[in-house]
Amino acid sequence: MAGKIILIDRQYGSGGREVGKRLADRLGIPFYDGQMLMIAAEKFGLSANVMAEYDEKNIKSMIYMIAMNADYNNGDGGMLPRKIYQAMQETIIRLANEGPCVIVGRCADYILEDKVEYINTFIYASDMQKRIDRAIKVDNIKAKDAPSYIKKRDRQRREYYNFHTDRRWGETSNYDICLNTSTLGYDRCVDIIENLVK
Hints:
The chain is an alpha/beta fold.
């Protein structure tokens, strides 16, 4: 799998991050998700809090600031949201050029198109109760709040992806393979993706 990059996009609560982490561990390659924010922040001299403010969410405020050409500034130094995205973009390209790795989310498929060879996967879960259980376990969301929280997080990811690309988040034609963790489980998803990159 020389030079192969594995990209994983995912529904919130589907366990896509867990699949990616297990896959990277099995293959012995780097795994990047939210830590890319820290790398980008360090490289561009930004606060990680500023980077996190726009990480796959808050697209409405981002659109407003771009339209108004206003800086984001709360003591962390002014920075246009598009510059924050650019920092993430440059970080993803640099990490991919360093060699095989697993990258989760953040429009990586669009950013890396025609730059490196990759397998693009979408992880989803058809069983809403399993997504609710994961939200409770991983993010300590109250059971009564979990369904609306799941919808909110998916909406944020969809808006972020659709805003920064000319594609639609979760549309099957964008991906090489879509896997349902509700029926396959995490390890079987890892097996399938591993076989694709061999």
